[in-house]
Amino acid sequence: MSVRRIMGTETEFGISVPGQPGANPMLTSSQVVNGYAQTQPLARKTRWDFDEEHPLRDARGFDLSREVADSSQLTDEETGLANVILTNGARLYVDHAHPEYSAPETTNPRDAVVWDKAGELVIMEGARQARLIPGAPQLNLYKNNTDNKGASYGSHENYLMRRSTPFASIVRHLTPFFVSRQVVTGAGRVGIGQDGAAHGFQVSQRADYFEVEVGLETTLKRPIINTRDEPHANPDRYRRLHVIIGDANLSEISTYLKVGTASLVLAMIEDGWLTDDLSVDRPVTALHEVSHDPSCTHLITLKDGRKITAVQLQTEYLEQARKYVEDKYGDDADRQTKDVLHRWEQILDQLAIDPMKLSDQLDWVAKYKLLQQYRDRDGLEWDDPKLHLIDLQYADLRPDKGLYYRLVKSGRMQRVVSDEEIRMAVSHPPVDTRAYFRGRCMQQYAPQVAAASWDSVIFDLPGKESLQRIPTLDPLRGTKAHVGALLDQCDTASDLVRTITGGAAG
Amino acid sequence: MAKDGGQQHKQPKRSSTEEEVEQVEASEDVQERKERLDEDVDSILDEIDEVLEENAEEFVRGFVQKGGE
Question: Got a GO cellular component term for this one (chain A) (predicted)?
Answer without folding.
Answer: proteasome complex
